[in-house]
Amino acid sequence: MRLLLPFLLGLALAQGELTHVVAPGETLFSIARRYGTTVEELQRLNGLSDFLIRPGQVLKVGPAQAPTHVVAAGETLFSIARRYGTTVEALKALNGLQDETLKVGQVLRLPSTAPEPPGAPSGAPLEEEEALDPESPLLRAVLRYLGVPYRYGANSPLALDCSAFVAQVYAELGVGLPRTTKEQWNALPQAEGLKPGDLVFFSFGGREVDHVGVYLGRGVFAHASSYGSRVVIESLEAPFYQKAYRGARRPPLPQANR
User: Which of 211, 218, 230, 249 is catalytic?
Assistant: First the structure.
């Protein structure tokens, strides 16, 4: 079954209902505020008798809504409109926008007829249009780190940098990776066409790679973001990342774990 993996961005549609996958550090209050509802309503929908929730828990947040897009760094109304086969004017009208200013993390409503976005960013085609199984060990490992703070040089449960995040995820799968971004780039074979589980590399400060994340399929990747100050999942198709993208490497992960 081919999935878009909307749950990777905290959203999912299941049996006509909108759901949210709890990330580390989230509370019922923060989730209620995000979706414009109340803590009491979340408790009622999910049969909760207290305020305790856990990372990875799937919460019902209300009836299914129109498709949405979470704005990533570097995206514009024009690039989003082109991605979903609509127009800037349609997006502005649907979201009540007076101009074309966007904020990272802003949720935009999309036309109900908007197609799924393409599965791979330009310059980084998939060998096949595939996505991670929701039950894959790799995806479960990634989700456990969502929201963990970013700190340069850090490698602990309290904070991580980009290469430490990647190394920690793969260590949970029994795969040892070098510690630094440059070492990971040099040690692993080049990926010919992106597949879920590949490492994606970027150069933000010069010619050499200085940032790394884990590709999850369907055009999204997880990384410890210095810009976002935490582990997040974002679109690899965003111009901000496409400009800095340098290539992918393939860790020796058994196919069963992907």
Answer: 211
- pTM here? 0.55
Q: What angle do CA 174, 129, 8 make, to 5 degrees?
A: 60
Tell me, yes or no, if 20 is annotated catalytic.
no
Is 69 part of the annotated catalytic residue set? Answer: no
The domain 137-257 is placed in CATH, from the list 3.90.1720.10, 3.30.1330.40, 3.40.50.720, 3.30.930.10, at 3.90.1720.10
For the sheet with 199-202, list strands across it.
Answer: 230-235, 220-225, 211-217, 199-202, 245-249
CATH number of 68-109: 3.10.350.10
Q: What pLDDT sits at residue 6?
A: 41
Each residue's pLDDT tens digit, 94-124: 888 888 888 877 878 777 654 444 444 444 4
Can you name the CATH fold of 17-63?
Answer: Membrane-bound Lytic Murein Transglycosylase D; Chain A (3.10.350)
d(CA 256, CA 137): 9
**Residue keyed to tokens 């490698």:** 155
CA 53 to chain centre: 21
Q: Is 162 part of the annotated catalytic residue set?
A: yes
Candidates 4, 80, 124, 162; catalytic one = 162
Query: ∠ CA 187-188-194 to the nearest 5 degrees?
Result: 155
Cβ–Cβ < 8 Å for 28, 53: yes
The tens digit of pLDDT for each residue in 26-74 reads 777 777 766 667 778 888 888 888 788 888 788 888 765 557 777 777 7
Catalytic residue, from 20, 83, 218, 223: name it: 223
**pLDDT tens for residues 144-179?**
898 899 999 888 878 999 999 999 999 999 999 999
